[in-house]
Design goal:
Layout lengths: L13 E4 L4 H4 L12 H14 L4 H4 L2 E6 L29 H21 L8 H23 L14 E5 L15 E7 L11 E6 L10 H13 L5 H5 L5 E7 L9 H21 L18 E6 L1 H9 L10 E7 L12 H18 L13 E6 L23 E5 L14 H4 L1 H14 L11 H12 L18 E6 L12 E6 L6 E6 L9 E7 L12 E8 L6 H5 L2 E4 L7 E8 L5 E3 L21 E7 L8 E6 L5 E11 H4 E3 L4 H7 L1 E5 L6 E6 L9 E5 L14 E7 L2 E6 L4 E4 L21 E6 L8 E7 L1 H11 L8 H19 L5 H10 L1 H16 L40 H34 L8 H7 L10 H17 L3 H25 L3 H36 L16 H10 L13 H17 L6 H19 L6 H9 L4 H6 L4
Parallel strand pairs: 5-6, 5-7, 7-8, 8-9, 9-10, 11-16, 22-24
Antiparallel strand pairs: 1-2, 3-4, 4-6, 11-17, 12-21, 13-20, 14-19, 14-21, 15-17, 15-20, 18-19, 23-30, 24-29, 25-28, 25-30, 26-27, 26-29
Length: 1146
Amino acid sequence: MRRRSSGSEDGDTSPVEAPHVNSLLNPPAFDSRSAATPSQSSRVDRRRSTDKRPPPARSRRSSSVNWKPSDPRDGPIDNSAAPAHPSSTPSLLPANGAQAKEMEKSQETRLTGRRLRLRSPWAITLPTLIVSLLGIGVLIAVLHSSVTRQLDPKGCRMSYMRPSYARLDDFDTEHTRFASKYSLYLYREQGIDHGTKVRGVPVLFIPGNAGSYKQVRPIAAEAANYFHDVLQHDENTVRSGVRSLDFFTVDFNEDITAFHGQTMLDQAEYLNEAIRYILSLYLDPRISDRDPDLPDPTSVIVLGHSMGGIVARTMLIMPNYQSNSINTIVTMSAPHARPPVSFDGQIVKIYQDINDYWRHAYSQQWANNNPLWHVTLVSIAGGGLDTVVPSDYASVESLVPDTHGFTAFTTTVPNVWTSMDHQAILWCDQFRKVITRAIFDVVDVNRATQTKPRAERMRVFKRWFLTGMESVAEKTVPLKDPTTLLTLEDNSNSIIAQGERLVLKQLGSSGTARAHLLPIPPPGSPGRKRFTLLTDQSLDSPGDNGRLEVLFCSVYPLQAGQAGTVFASHIDFSADATASTRLTCKNAASDVIALPASTRATRYPFFSEHEREIPPFSFLQYELDEISEYQFVAVVDKAMVPTPGFVIAEFSDHTQSHRTRHISLRSLLWFGMKLRLPAARPMMVEVKVPSLQSSLLAYNLEIGAQNCGRNGELFAPLLRQYLTEPYESKYFVNARKVMVSLHGVAPYVPPPLTRRSAGDGLSFQFWTDPTCDSNINVKLSIDVMGSLGKLYMRYRTVFAAFPLLVVAMVLRKQFRIYDTTGVFVSFSESLDMCLKQSIPLMLASLTILSISTGNPTPAGNASFWHWKNSTTSVIDFHQNDLLIGTQDPFFWFLIPLIGLICIGVCTVLNYITLALTFVLGAAFGLLSFRPGWVRNDDRRKTGPPSAFLSSSPRRRMAITAILLFLVSTFIPYQFAYLVACLVQLTTTVRAQRIASELRSTANSNFYNYVHSLLVLMLWILPINMPTLVVWVHNLAVQWLTPFSSHHNVLSIMPFIVLVETLTTGKMIPRVSSRFRHFTSVLLFGISIYAAVYGVSYAYMLHYLVNLVVAWLVLVHATADSWPFSGFSSLYLYEGNVDDRKRGKEP
């Protein structure tokens, strides 16, 4: 039999001595002609083997690597000369033809020469190093930008309370099957609430992910104090149906709901039973202390924080939901639009179910067909300081119409005007005051629902949570009756000429009270008119004795005796003159819009605990058609002595006060945008830029100084940036240099129910002193470095999916080279090869796909690319699930950018894994230290101790069976996956020791193989860890009920079998037939899926990798025969037939 040594042509699948592939270790120089024919190659290899044969002692040294010898000691047997033994045939089918064999041999020669220079797995080429460093540099820039640039200031003031909690022990297992796990409490404020009897309106607080039932205390304490100190003393308020609030809260033992869908369902089921029990308390006279004449409550107001808001919406789709038991839901920092992470398939499905249910309900034409017609949903988002849940996800515009709900940001809420982090939204003193007053305004104990009708509730919430300048804001002046009679002299000179502006730089300058009248332009006047008024004084309501009052008046004919009987207030400036004019007026105080005070001394729109409170500005704004029924606007200066303060009032044309600048993002990026506010401008100027809609970009806005001369300006420039959907407003006082960021069109967020208009975009409102008679220059530019930080919150979950594209492509290259040449290259070398062609081509293809499916308008539709193409709705709510989650072609560069970062991250993880295995291997070597007096011959015979000392077959089968049994009954398969990762790490450490001590192609192949599989499993581990954390948490709270999800044995069995197989040291056989393409197709499919759907459906990546692992197990099983004996070989024996016959080698 002729022998040759041409490298590892066939796969090594059994224990052998250390292979002596000297052509790989010390190759002589050769040219391309050496691989011309098989015979020539054999002669060259034979000479190489003869000249460089190692000493006999070394050739007898046995390896402890347990893979089967398919080749003789001097090299592999030429398949053309003698047929191979069946047990040593690695491929599923024989090779096809001599030409294919020659091509493989040529490729092997070339790759062998290349591998000589990158033998070590630590080696890295300069291009790979540069690309990896660039990726890590970009990642560092993103992280640095997220913590240093475009940050919202913190303005929350601390809240204080005296809490106590009464546990409702009667809510036991007779009412719910979760009574042993969860608990229900009633909040009581010490010193105010006495006893545990219910006497008010029921409110249920639902904590969020890992939240505590005690988080209800700031809002509940404020409600108790406000009713005790203010409301109960107001007879009109009590008569209107306002009562105290009974806050109920639930102890979920800090359940982790964001990662586990079944936990959400359990909580929703428990809460529906809790509401049924809460309502029953008001029927029991022993517990209820309500007026018996009032109707019994039939519904509960729900407050939800974070995931508690999603659980609140889930309650309405549960089978045990009591109809109409919930009609008002207010959520804080709740991710309504999409799940925060998509690692659990069940939570993704629950989101789809509840969102589809809500959308379908509000799509009904008739109210009788809508089960949610009576429900109002208000979502409050914390804004840029919330780094736990992106505030973009708090949007409900894709779920409910504006008649039933809306989204507002805390920066929008009047007298709050600050962003909040995820927890501060519960205890922030300014915000808790607003939310408690809003709830008191919607309650009505005279109705069984305990709340006002839906339309009135929506008006109340919009008044408390919106600025009042939105298009949906309703003015109250046209709906009221006249309350004031204003009497003036006929020859009064207080009437301002038509078109003139009223400017009062000081109140009470005339030494007496005075009324200033602005004529209202008649209907049909040219141009669109708007009335605006700004002052630093608070406006009086009817009967108040303040400094300033604003009235809308019409001429009233004199009728004896009617003035005193009809009007509640009479203001007389006639001085008993014989000729006078009487005006019937309506007070405008109810329509006042609060604006943060803007002076040279202010820095933020809010004030901190240790700063002096500055009263806000008062602003009025009316369109002409809203006040056209009146004839005058009367500004009544009541100050009797000169008093600091200013008033500016005017009618302005829409053409002068509104501008629209159409500029593309590309032009804005390269050149910026400049505009000039002329000297003859209105007090308030609004500039809209329709192209500014994306939340991925941040901007810098510079406002030039104006020259006001000696007198100085009445107020410093005030800027408001706002979006119409969702309702986000930000105020900048004393504005000079402003950092602009927004929560508009965000990645992966579904489109709204109503399509956005092409003219929608970011708008800026400038309040400037018009008396300065000076131009103001404004410059807007994109903050590139600040925009990098916006990628962090929007694309955090990308790093759980997108790196698998790189890892799968690297593994694909490794298997292709191995199946062709018999050399399993290292992860680093395969990455270097992929960076030369496959990965750039993949990123380029994905970029082209993103551009082709994109649409420059927000109303684009890409449902064709989604597996669940919607046919029942015009709007595809899944159109943003693909790739980077946005259809704006401007962001095409994000795919290469994310790919670059992922390459760097994968390189770092590879070297971290290498370092970990090296350190553990070194520690393992120290623990297995052999004394120096052991003979060298004995040392060679024994080899590295305990490298692959496999346990008995029965023991391995028993461990696998026990683990699979536990998965099917008690533990989730994620726990078994963690165990598999640890076992794979141990196998990699052992393989690393062998590859470093016994250098051979077979040992290096096996080490590179198990190392790459370990890297792949580590990237899947973050997808499985959240569910494992939930399971461990359930055990920690002594919840003995079996874990009710994630017990699919098939989801983990391939991993267990493969990991157990690798512990024996068996190398995967080569597949030299057409079946080798199946491995490439599977890994290529994982790459495509990870990039396209990995973010939205990350849980599927585990199943896809599980499929690849199952295929590898199948390939391993074909090492001996097909198919059943192959599978049995994985467990029943190690080594080859000769080993079993000879027994243990001495």
